[in-house]
Amino acid sequence: MAAILDRFFHLTAHSTDVRTEILAGLTTFVTMAYIIIVNPLTLKEAGMDPGALFMATILAAAASTLVMGLFANWPFALAPGMGLNAFFAFSLVIGSKGAISWQTALGAVFVSGVLALIVTVTGLREIMIKAIPLSLKHAVSAGIGFFIMLIGLKNAGIVAAFEATIITLGPIKTPGVLLAIIGLIITAALVARRVPGGILIGIVATTIIGMPMGVTKLPASVFSMPPSLAPTFLQLNFSGVLSLSMVTIIFSMFFADLFDTIGTFVGVAGKAGLMDEQGNLKGGSRALVADSCGTIIGALLGTSNTTTYVESAAGIAAGGRTGLTAVTTAVFFLIAAFLSPIALAIPGQATAPALIIVGVLMASPLLEINLNDFTEAFPAILTAVMMPFTFSIATGLALGFVAYVALNLLAGKAAKIHWMMYVLTAFFLYYFYAH
């Protein structure tokens, strides 16, 4: 068996072995397993079935990670992306006040995945990457991080609505909010100490602490047959998906996923020896195709955009170098399907700290923005802060693009604006005018 795996995954050529790859796959799974818990709790706010979401999350992660491992032979794992799931539930479905159903939102996710696949296969991806300034790419990641933090703080009850859209401090003395604060301190300490799987450990610890506080309700059993996927499987609705407002949303999903994927690939591939001397990704086109297929697979199963996880770096640090690491991670996701009673019993106050911590981690690209150049700083910061302030990733993205083009034109720096940015800005301006 070891010889077969060696030939298929080229283990010897990558200076690794079966044992190392399996341990690396387990490490990656532990660091990102929190998504099995967090994603269903996030998307159920859109009116979707929690049990089906649990299965959709697991199967989307397992299937897309298998594609990455078997097709691209990369040690990267995929799962429904943080930020995009919050965008799906809170901005797209809830924010539309009934105008957009979760079925239509799934249709939009599917189309964004197809768009990503077309852009990757045709080479348009390269044009878009070159067109969008680096400062806006960093801002999108940070803005989504702030958006996730706001969702986490809201779910924890640490902040609450006050006079319509203004927020204020929540009821700190209530058991649920106290539990969330305790969990936030525990999780932050674990992450600060670089404990592998710190976010997942924090969720488990907070859940246990919530038992005597009356917040966590014990499940009747630990193991069970996996819940039915039927409530979300193939429930996509494409009616109205190509309307102006939905096209803008699809582009927002596409860009956010694109920036996140490129950032993960470039940041992690070098550590895995998957980048050559010129900075080109070895087998990167296959990996990008696998990533695009992940979103399509996830939409069919019934979840938001599936994307490559930066937590893959944990498995790579443990020695993972080939697709066998990804295949191992996928197998552990499938095993987790039989633990649904535990996952579904975890209260929202236990997962809220994970959202806040992930939001903080996603905000780090702000450090890469040149704040001394106002033509770069203003559009970037506007993009980042308007995502949580307007409770819409799409609106923050659109405002940032328009601001970048307008400010640089007025500042006499038109030469640095790529022609594609004019096209995108015109599209966003028409979107604002139509609304």
Helix amount, in percent? 55-70%
- Secondary structure class reads mainly alpha
Number of strand segments: 4
Low-confidence stretches: none
End-to-end C-alpha gap: 60 Å
Strand content of the residues, in percent? under 5%
Sheet having the most strands: 2 strands, antiparallel
- Strand sequence of the main sheet, in spatial order? 1-4
Element string (H = helix, E = strand): HHHHEHHHHEEHHHHEHHHHHHH
Please tell me the overall pLDDT: 83
Word description of this protein:
With 435 residues, the protein is mainly α. Helix content is 65%, strand content 3%. The strands form 2 sheets. It has a two-stranded antiparallel ribbon. Strands 2-3 form a two-stranded antiparallel sheet. A hairpin with a 3-residue loop joins strand 2 and strand 3. Helix 8 runs parallel beside helix 17, helix 9 packs antiparallel against helix 10 (198-209) and helix 9 (175-192) packs across helix 16 (348-362). The longest helix is centred in the middle third of the chain and has 26 residues, at 244-269. The model has no long low-confidence stretch (mean pLDDT 83).
